[in-house]
Design goal:
Chain A is of the alpha+beta class. In chain A, 34% of the residues lie in helices and 28% in strands. Chain B folds into two domains: 62 residues; 70 residues, Beta Barrel (OB fold (Dihydrolipoamide Acetyltransferase, E2P)). In chain B, a hairpin with a 2-residue loop joins strand 6 and strand 7. In chain B, the strands form two sheets. A six-stranded mixed sheet of chain B has the order 2-1-3-10-8-5, covered by helices on one side. Chain B has a four-stranded antiparallel sheet with strand order 7-6-4-9, with no helix packed on it. Chain B is mainly beta and 137 residues long. Chain B contains one helix and ten strands, in the order H-E-E-E-E-E-E-E-E-E-E. Classes of the chains: A alpha+beta (451), B mainly beta (137). At the A-C interface, helix 1, strand 20 and helix 12 of A face helix 1, strand 20 and helix 12 of C.
């Protein structure tokens, strides 16, 4: 097992990794930017290095400073968390070159899955159903040909994409040229890679993903699915749950089977997530995330497995301590993302000082956060302040528990998504279960209309 | 820099200030400059007040220094012969370099001056923003 | 089911009950003293009534004001929590006289179990093994006769006792007169009942208790045992866990069997706890607590049952929704009491303002508390600020998790038991499991000795 | 009362003060008396300061009142005929009683005075410490 791990991240996930390390008896090294000097992720680590000023490109994405901090402090491994350098194969390679174990899959797999077109091809080869569409298209004309072939509406997607960036819906041929230009420009700006591909746009599908764990000795298990269909118009997830509600048992079993098959086919190791679009009885592979996900706690709560500890154990060469038969979910879990943003104003991110912070507690509640009363929300990063997770015996009891937990939550100083999410939980359609990704955007659109 | 960031930088700078034992320290970071001034120990703590106050007491010795800090995370390699406190710099020169993954990141004096503090020793690991030298202009 | 419940308590347990009610869709009415105006238990309730000034005798024990608040606000039930009026049969009767359901057992059972001598007799009749000793003794002479018969050391105990009050260890005949006088005076002052009985004093037994639930239709289940042997010299519990470590499986099964048998025998209803002293293979009934216990969360975490919700359901006349066969514990849970007291100074209670409050979070951690940054700890009540509970797959992983959780906890403004408990968790003897109630007092005595 | 409790009582009292619209309110609770004084809007906020200050500005109209509050939780039953604002009390008398579980808890004026506020109405539920009447002495 590792002696000391550098945590190449910030915020709640850095704290989450710190917890897993400490519970495994591993020392930790935090990195931080000038803007995060007072964050809890710095306070709780055994050592901490400032790696740059506020902007992420100069700090949390500063590979030389991060690797240097790991070497100076005598680390033997790096955990990248999610975002930042988590899916950067080059970072994983540089770490390896300096004798540091990267806690995640191999650079080759990261690369293959990170390139959406390659990932799709590999999945097709493994017999995984994928959305009808093209490989990389070289021009608007080529995009039009593909679109007409599979039929409008289509989705233009950046092959290097993620987080909804470099993605455009195209409902008619006339919209193509503008959509192509803006998606390409956005992809170029965000990922320095403007290549696009075309996919069939599903109408209001569900976003369902399957968590997998794979060790270096051929052990592969799934830990069930998560439903992440409650997404903002920007495609960012807001509420997630496990298991998916109102899902046909046959379809559920098929998703699990596809996930483990695909994991084996690409010789995947460590924790990963296969994202699918589900529409009626159709299942289409969307992408594979080669890292821990924000929403991993809902899976942890119903399976009783600590996914971050498993990541570390796998990276240290250990075999999974369990087989598929040992894994049984209990109950239902739901997560709400508490973001510093204004739901009344297109979720515009907010920065400032948190004057009051009271999180919920009691039975069945888990809170993952790096903020506290008096802490500063810098303007540079993701707006997530906390994840509140509720577990109950049934979906209904988990939702009721989450409602009371959000009612207890008090965050003052910046606008947050707390009250908005509490309202969503009370919505009849949400309560029935199984909403699609179009549910929240259309609800917001209806609200925005004058009465 | 945002105001928040200035605040945290200023706080860090105040630490170096106390260590170096003088009255004012200044640090430049790209377009922004932060200056931290230490109140004299003899000065009473005075809340701001509507009535006109006497002139604020000033520290006996006032010195003004530039702090040269590290831009990278790495190991300090001092120039040879090593720069020492009290030394006069009559030209802009390299005071040290910080080694990061085998790369040499020079640390220059940014002009002439009087070295009033050397905060680091040979081979010491430093983080981003860590004070290395203080130079009186 | 009830429409509105008055919560006749304060602090974390009031909040705990508030949570259960809200998750069941029941409105809540809090009561508070002048000193608790800003407590979270007041803020989260749907309505709140000030029932008196700071001292508990004039507020939380003020039966007319509490019942009046329940009637004015239209409540149909009262939950007493623990402490204060929780085991006051008269209060339960008055509530019933005013048409309010008391969420707990019947007044007759509260009375019987509250009188230690009666409880012991009833248990003996039910075939439950009890500590050798007497019924009520009328004088020092009678106490001496009994003591000589069963052999020193003995324990003098107030029949109305609880919380270590009115209790004295007597190691030799010469100590008897003083011990008798002080125990009697203390019992008289604390409970207005100076009657004492004599019991064999076990040397360093374990304190193991069994949780039971019983409905009004004959349904009785146990939810395993808790080990509460880590007690301060004042006999107050400090660290509790479930299940008990290093306990012979046969002995465990016997404890569970005795508990359910006794519960049936006394026609007990609602949640209750049977406390036992365990020494080697000997088991002796100590007392039955006819209320929810402080340490109930360790049971909840390993059984996945919400005990407070079950209390409410039972009081509303529902049948238990499960049988013994449905109940299976998973993993190991441990609770640490965060008290505002100074472990370096005989656990002297501290009052004041909490300047900083940061509680732990993340996987496997539950926090039950009513305090927050800036809140005031009044001098009038129990010094408990919070309960931190950790659950893991094994005892070792739960302890490691608790160690990291206590490391994350930061409470400033008053002295607390956080660091002290963290030290205890690292003790080799504690780590081995199965310490007796004498362990902590003797560890403290060793420390106090000059080196 | 401890200082903490005095603070919370004072805060509650300040609410009644604002509602009643006068300058000073006083409440007695056993051995302790709390007086809350409202600063005039025209008075500048003055931090405590080392230099001698001018005398603090005073509100134009100064009135001094005793607040009679409830000792129990119950339902208010006003005296008949009901006490009204502006009324003069030329002897100590019962202003109302608060009914708690059928028991009559009299509320007395504790002497003579001028009734400047009646905070409650017939049949209103009140909690412990809730202001019922304010009487200028």
């Amino acid at each position: 097992m590792f002696k000391k791990v550098l945590i190449a991240n910030r915020g709640e996930i850095a704290l989450r990794i710190n917890r897993a390390c400490h519970e495994l008896g591993i020392a930790t090294v935090a990195i931080f930017s000038d803007a995060d000097r007072a964050s809890l992720h710095v306070r709780h680590a055994d050592e901490a290095f400032c790696v740059g000023p506020g902007p992420a490109t100069r700090s949390y994405l500063n590979i030389p400073n991060i690797i240097s901090a790991a070497l100076i402090s005598g680390c033997d491994a790096i955990h990248p968390g999610y975002g930042f350098l988590a899916e950067n194969a080059r970072f994983a390679e540089i770490a390896a070159d300096h004798g540091l174990t990267f806690i995640g899959p191999t650079p080759a797999v990261i690369n293959a899955m990170g390139d959406k077109a390659t990932a799709k091809r590999l999945m097709q080869e493994a017999g995984v159903p994928t959305t009808p569409g093209s490989g990389i298209v070289a021009s608007v004309d080529e995009a039009r040909t593909v679109a007409e072939q599979i039929g409008f509406p289509v989705l233009l997607k950046a092959t290097a994409g993620g987080g909804g960036k470099g993605m455009r819906e195209v409902h008619a041929p006339a919209e193509l040229p503008t959509a192509y230009a803006t998606a390409q420009a956005e992809a170029e700006a965000s990922f320095k890679d403007g290549r696009l591909y075309v996919e069939k746009l599903m109408v209001n599908p569900r976003h369902i993903e399957v968590q997998v764990l794979a060790d270096e000795h051929g052990g592969v298990v799934h830990l069930g699915e998560r439903d992440c269909s409650v997404q903002k118009p920007s495609h960012q997830k807001l509420i997630e749950e496990a298991p998916a509600a109102e899902l046909d048992p046959g379809l559920r079993a098929r998703l699990h089977h596809i996930a483990t098959t695909a994991t084996r086919a690409v010789r995947y190791t460590n924790a990963g997530t296969l994202e699918f679009l589900v529409s009626g009885s159709d299942v289409y592979f969307m992408e594979m995330n080669t890292r821990i996900q924000v929403e991993h706690p809902v899976t942890e709560l119903i399976y009783g497995v600590d996914l971050v500890k498993e990541q570390i154990r796998i990276a240290a060469g250990e075999s999974l301590g369990f087989t598929q038969d040992d894994l049984h979910p209990h109950g239902h879990a739901i997560e709400v993302r508490v973001n510093a943003e204004d739901p009344e104003n297109n979720f515009a991110p907010a920065a400032g000082t948190l004057t009051t912070v009271v999180f919920p507690g009691g039975p069945g509640i888990r809170v993952d956060t790096h903020v506290y009363g008096g802490s500063i929300v810098p303007p540079f990063y993701d707006s997530m302040l906390a994840k509140i997770v509720a577990v109950g015996r049934t979906r209904e009891s988990a939702i009721l528990r989450m409602e009371r937990a959000l009612g207890e939550t008090r965050i003052e100083g910046v606008k947050t998504t707390v009250d908005f999410c509490r309202e969503l939980l009370g919505d009849e359609r949400f309560r029935a279960g199984g909403v699609g990704v179009g549910w929240l955007p259309s609800l917001l659109a209806r609200r925005a209309q004058p009465v | 820099m945002t105001e928040d960031v200035i605040a945290v930088r200023a706080r860090a700078l105040a630490g170096a200030l106390a260590e170096a034992g003088f009255a004012r320290l200044r640090v430049r970071d790209g377009e922004t400059e932060i200056e931290v001034r230490r109140a004299s120990h003899s000065a009473p703590v005075r809340p701001s007040c509507a009535v006109p106050a006497e002139p604020a007491p000033r520290p006996t010795v006032e010195r003004m220094a530039d702090v040269i800090s590290s831009d990278v995370v790495g190991i300090v390699r001092l120039a040879r012969p090593a720069i020492v406190e009290g030394q006069e710099l009559d030209e802009d020169r390299e005071l040290a370099f910080v080694e990061t993954l085998g790369i040499r990141n020079p640390v220059r004096s940014r002009g002439t001056g009087h070295v009033i503090a050397v905060f680091v020793t040979e081979g010491q690991p430093v983080e981003y923003g860590q004070a290395l030298f203080a130079i009186e202009r």
